Amino acid sequence: MTAPVRIDGVSHRFEAFEALRDIRLDIAAGEYVTLLGPSGCGKTTLLSVLGGFVDPTEGRVLIGGRDVTRLAPARRPTTTVFQDYALFPHMTLRDNVGFGLRMAGQGRRVRHARAHEMLALVGLETAADKRPHALSGGQRQRVALARALAVDPEVLLLDEPLGALDLALRRSMQDELKTIQRKIGTTFIHVTHDQEEAMAIADRIVVMNRGRIEDEGPPARIYRAPRSLFAAAFMGETNRVPARATGTALETPFGTLPHRGPAGEATLCLRPEAIGPAPGGLALGPARVRDAAFFGTHCRVHVLPDAAPGLTLIAHLPPGELPAPGDLLHLNAATDPLTVFAME
């Protein structure tokens, strides 16, 4: 089963602190959405509102067109996967996965059959008689996912489920989550502060900051053409170049670019991978290497451009040759798309 979700003007306050401010968001049935943002931005509070663990101060939550705002968690068509797994250590994996069905009054044969089906879905069909302590962190997270899916929720809520895993396991589980979601078609809403994780798994990313939505859209659009300076900075490294807009052009320390927009002080954002030796775009001119590090797929280099004293740029250069501190490079920046924000 799956269902759309509507968050209609949700706000929430913890005494004087406003954790959520007029959140409005429609999530399609079967969509994989990530709520992304720094600690304290409101993403976990919003997930708690969706799960029924927190009552919003204002607004409504609708699932499948039904107002569930004041329903208890057990009465909602949602289940939640937590970062700490929350498995029962004394139970077998079969009984852990079937626990929700047991609470719903399902008979032993039915819940065992469903538990085996869900364990097979997450690749643990031969481990039904094991207990959680015999599993790795990634395997325990798979069991938690199987348990949440066993009750056939319309919406699955994931609260930083991969945060406790190492990098290799985290990437493996990202792939598995995406594959499982596509297979079963359930609406997934996933909280994370990891930008790479959000881009790897989501159909749509919702960037949050200070209790409100800064930007939302497909990962590629959010990364390449963010709608706010905060979203641009949070969605990975970016170089902020001071500029001035004239209405028809953008004046930068490196030259002038055509640009239509309000006149005034502005910031041009350039991703590190947009900067390199290839010709075209905006000529940055000679730049002295401050330091460089090899990252496998690229060299991450800090450079000091002659044209902008005091400005340090980050460039991701080809991995073939690591430049040395003091080397002089001649660099250009791709400016498609041109990402410019007016200074407030």
UniProtKB/TrEMBL annotation:
Q: Which InterPro entries match?
A: AAA+_ATPase, ABC_SmlMolc_Importer, ABC_transporter-like_ATP-bd, ABC_transporter-like_CS, Mo/tungstate-bd_C_term_dom, P-loop_NTPase, Transp-assoc_OB_typ2
Query: Is Magnesium found in the keyword set?
Result: no
- Kindly list the GO molecular function terms attached to this UniProt entry: ATP binding; ATP hydrolysis activity; transmembrane transporter activity
Q: Name one Pfam family in it.
A: ABC_tran
Matching SMART domains, A to Z? Answer: AAA (SM00382)
One term under GO cellular component? ATP-binding cassette (ABC) transporter complex
Alphabetically ordered keywords of this record: ATP-binding, Nucleotide-binding, Transport
Q: Which SUPFAM superfamilies match?
A: MOP-like, P-loop containing nucleoside triphosphate hydrolases
Q: Which residues form the ABC transporter domain?
A: 5-235
Alphabetical GO biological process terms: putrescine transport
Highest taxon of source: Bacteria
What name goes with this protein?
ABC transporter ATP-binding protein
Q: Which species does this protein come from?
A: Meridianimarinicoccus roseus
